[in-house]
UniProtKB/TrEMBL annotation:
The keyword S-adenosyl-L-methionine applies. Pfam families: TP_methylase. Keywords: Cobalamin biosynthesis, Methyltransferase, S-adenosyl-L-methionine, Transferase. PANTHER family: COBALT-PRECORRIN-2 C(20)-METHYLTRANSFERASE, PRECORRIN-6A SYNTHASE [DEACETYLATING]. This is Precorrin 6A synthase. Gene3D superfamilies: Cobalt-precorrin-4 Transmethylase, Domain 1, Methyltransferase, Cobalt-precorrin-4 Transmethylase, Domain 2. GO terms for molecular function: precorrin-6A synthase (deacetylating) activity. Residues 5-219 form the Tetrapyrrole methylase domain. It comes from Mycobacterium gastri. Pathway: Cofactor biosynthesis; adenosylcobalamin biosynthesis.
Amino acid sequence: MGRHIHVIGIGAGDPDYLTVQAINALNDTQVFFAMDKGETKSDLVVLRRKICERFIQEPGYRFVELPDPERATDTDYRQAVVDWHAARARIWAAAIAAELAPDGVGAFLAWGDPSLYDSTLRILEAVSAEVDISYDVVPGITAVQALTARHRIPLNDVGAPVLITTGRQLRARGFTGSAVVMLDADCSFQRCPPQTRIWWGAYLGTADELLVAGTVGEVGARIAALRAEARARHGWIMDTYLLRVSDGAPD
């Protein structure tokens, strides 16, 4: 059969978000590969282990933690990402070849869904050029779904599109209608007009979950302060938010 890799979407933080398909894939796996992002994010690896302990019926699997290479911050953003992915691919290829039997089954557990602002699939494509592997993808509950569920709101206005973007792109391009913003370390919503609606969430699906909703003028400063305090306390933060304007684009 050859080496096979499951890429398993494990949801936004709540183990109850796992699908039956994901649980079946967990139970089919012998080796789980996890990126070690340092002490400040060690609880992310711990949560992955707890998910396995909860849902895997038979012991015998093992975790292999891989060092996460540094991403350059003093060069072009896109080139830095390309170089970072290449460095990860080299580490993953070596680990799969060394740790997974020629007919073994391994897995990477991806937060949310592997299709949404996650590098796992791009890196595995590069790995497959170095190591003979096949892989499949198990979808998961995204932070976007968790956010709208926790705020009890629809993602879109009636018949209207939704933009999914980053803080960097929001600052550069703005938006009209509705936009989901991810990977925003700079609280870019603060540049939107004060009447812009915002639904924000951090650590979604975990015991540390934070939720705030209102207009940017009403709650923007509060969100920025909450975010800074939470990041300082935990050493990391995963958050996302939905913006909506009724009439035209932000200035």
